[in-house]
Each structure stands twice: as C-alpha cells, then as structure tokens.
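Practice problem: Lipoxygenase domain-containing protein
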Amino acid sequence: MVMFTCSAQHAAVNSGQYDFYGWMPNGPPTMQEPPPTEKGTVTEERILKTLPGISIIILGMATSWVLSMQAHDSSFLPDFKRKYFTEHMPCDKIGIFQKKLLKLSKEINKRNEGADLPYTYLDPKLVENSVSI
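Answer key — structure tokens:
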C-alpha cells in the first residue's frame, strides 16, 4: 500500500495537474464572486466577473506547472535499483515485479493506440518510484 500511495497514486493525482489546470477555467485558483444558488442564473458576464485577475491566474498556472514537473533525476518504477540487495530472494522478487510492470506498460500503450487523448499517467515507465517534489 505504501509503494502504491507513494508512486502510482501520487502520479495519478499529481502528473496531470498542469494538463488540466493549465487551462484556468478548469480550476481557477480563486473565485471573485460566490457560487450561484439557483440553477439557470449563470450568464457569461457573471462567469467572467467570477474568474480571478491575470496575476492570480499566472500564479495558479505556475504552481500547477511546477507540481507537475518531473525531477531531473527521476527514477521510475521498472528501474528499481538492485544495488541495495544481494540476497537471491529479494533480487528474484524485484525481477518478477519489473517484468509485471513492463507487461502492464505494454498493455497500457496498446490500449492508448489510436486514442484521441491517451492516458499515460499510470504507465509504470512514467511513474516515479517515489514522491519527488
């Protein structure tokens, strides 16, 4: 569970932040007006008055961009380093785990073929093996 939370779950919620929030109307960092209380009362003018100013938008986009970036020294799930283990059993288990991850990666890539918007955030080859912020 710890491995999943610190790798795959983190990648699922973190990696796509800029892809989604880089377009500010998807998730404005602040709102300048209260939300509507009745259905059908929203107008384009009200939406525009609700959105934040450009300086807040830039800060929000920059924050989501920084949080979505991969570290320059990233280490990914299939690249588990064996140098810390010398016994046969952990090395064998790591090898089995790596093979399963690479198989999963191939399945994900096959599923994404021809997709208008491929979902790559949980491809093990792209999932960092730890939270790195």
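Discussion: The mean pLDDT is 89. Students who identified this feature from the tokens alone can consider the problem solved.
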